[in-house]
Amino acid sequence: MLSSTPVVRVYARASLPSRHGELEVVSFTDVEGRRLDDVAIVCGNIAGAAEVPTRVHSECLTGDVFGSLRCDCRDQLELALDRIGADHFGLIIYMRQEGRGIGIAEKVRAYELQDNGYDTLEANLHLGFDGDMRRYDLAAAMIHALEVESIVLHTNNPLKVEGLRSNGVQIASREAIVSEPRDENVQYLRTKKAKMGHVL
Questions:
Q1: From the annotation, which residues make up the binding site for GTP?
Q2: What is the CB neighbour count within 10 angstroms for residue 22?
Q3: 61-101 tens-digit pLDDT
Q4: What is the pLDDT of residues 11-60, one digit of tens each?
Q5: Are 79 and 29 in contact (CB under 8 A)?
Q6: Is 13 helix (H, G, I), strand (E, B) or coil?
Q7: Any catalytic annotation for residue 64?
Q8: DSSP states along 43-84
Q9: CA spacing 20 to 30 A to 133: which of 53, 73, 120, 196?
Q10: 134, 165, 174, 190: which is the annotated catalytic residue?
């Protein structure tokens, strides 16, 4: 762990029987004892393990919960859960970073702009935000707190790889996590590939 990476501690662990198998949910506190809203979903014994299949997933209320077809977020989350459930081994870090870090209220405003012809990147920039406001230092701290030796990161986003590595996470390799495009999200996926450097 690098000196600039925050330190967090495991606060509580509980079993989480799920559609994807027997999982565990883990919550955390910071060094001052403040409880985090971010959680880890763990499958199997990952402490001290190398090349742990890992997905760092940013919350998407509209997709993850309500099944929106505007994005591929729920598809990626379900695919990651299926993968670790099938292998009985893996980790999902679930970060409360809605709308690439702008929050749900602003995300709805961005959707409104997209309804009027903006793409996802243009909408965020029009609202005065960077294209991607997310940080990965806290996710890295959670991985360190779980005592994972190294991970296989399931992502299409090079910035996520860079962000975790810069905070001391050992990434053995990257695994693509691509779902079938739909009419409703094909432009969104094109924008991620052409303008945001995602490997799709």
A1: 55-59, 76, 98-100, 120, 155, 160
A2: 12
A3: 999 999 999 888 999 999 999 999 999 999 999 999 999 89
A4: 999 999 999 999 999 999 999 999 999 999 999 999 999 999 999 999 99
A5: no
A6: strand
A7: no
A8: ES--TT-SSEEEEEEE--IIIIIT--SSSSHHHHHHHHHHHH
A9: 53
A10: 134
User: Which residue type occupies 137?
Assistant: D
Alpha-carbon distance values, 31 to 13, 34, 47, 53, 169 (Å):
18, 7, 20, 27, 19
Catalytic residue among 64, 72, 75, 132: 132
Give the torsion sign (CA, 184, 195, 175, 1).
negative
Q: 149-192, pLDDT tens digit by residue?
A: 999 999 999 989 999 999 999 999 999 998 777 776 567 666 66
Q: What are the structural domains, with CATH classification, of the chain?
A: 8-97+134-195 (3.40.50.10990)
Residue whose tokens read 């919960």? 65
123: three-class secondary structure by DSSP = helix
132 labelled catalytic? yes
